[in-house]
Design goal:
The complex is a heterodimer of chains A (112) and B (115). Chain A is mainly beta and 112 residues long. Chain A has no helices and 11 strands. In chain A, the strands form 2 sheets. In chain A, strands 2, 4, 5, 9, 10 and 11 form a 6-stranded mixed β-sheet that branches. Chain A has a 5-stranded antiparallel β-sheet with strand order 1-3-8-7-6, with no helix packed on it. Chain B is mainly beta. Chain B has no helices and 11 strands. In chain B, the strands form 2 sheets. In chain B, strands 2, 4, 5, 6, 9, 10 and 11 form a 7-stranded mixed β-sheet that branches. Chain B has a 4-stranded antiparallel β-sheet with strand order 1-3-8-7, with no helix packed on it. Chain B is globular. The chains are: A mainly beta (112), B mainly beta (115).
Chain lengths: 112, 115
Amino acid sequence: DQQVKQNSPSLSVQEGRISILNCDYTNSMFDYFLWYKKYPAEGPTFLISISSIKDKNEDGRFTVFLNKSAKHLSLHIVPSQPGDSAVYFCAASASTGNQFYFGTGTSLTVIP
Amino acid sequence: DAGVTQSPTHLIKTRGQQVTLRCSPKSGHDTVSWYQQALGQGPQFIFQYYEEEERQRGNFPDRFSGHQFPNYSSELNVNALLLGDSALYLCASSFGVSGYTYEQYFGPGTRLTVT
């Protein structure tokens, strides 16, 4: 049972425009969410996180939005750069446990 | 500052064999988690070790076992290998297990192929 879903396997965006990556979850116990970025032949790299007490968290060009009622989070990258081309995973965890549940990933291609 | 390291990088085994994968956590980290990432899928949690004990386990059979050493490094052992065990095995380290406001740092993974 996939508790974290990324329904878009791929996304292409022009350089300088906004990239929006989406993630949905089903478990209402999840209260901490992370985004990871993965280049080929490397492990995932932590990008940004958000806890359920917030609905927005920013870090430079990256902003994560959380809509708890819709069980939906999104990652915005503005402006998108060619170096952002990678696979992006969202992950979720409940404070009652230490296990992170990952989505299947979205492959982002930023076109120069 | 050394990040998370894993060995070996690649491994080819035959069905029925046993394999051991190794992980050294990032400096200052004391918790190690193991994940299996099948092709086209996200990482799936296998188990987590803290203070040399398995603290939490995902939905994986007993063929998957692990160990954590006093220096916080860890091993993942898989017995009676199946073709379906072919995957990228990722190790992630973090500090502590209390609460949830921690970030895991991943190693580059070990690519296991079972033939």
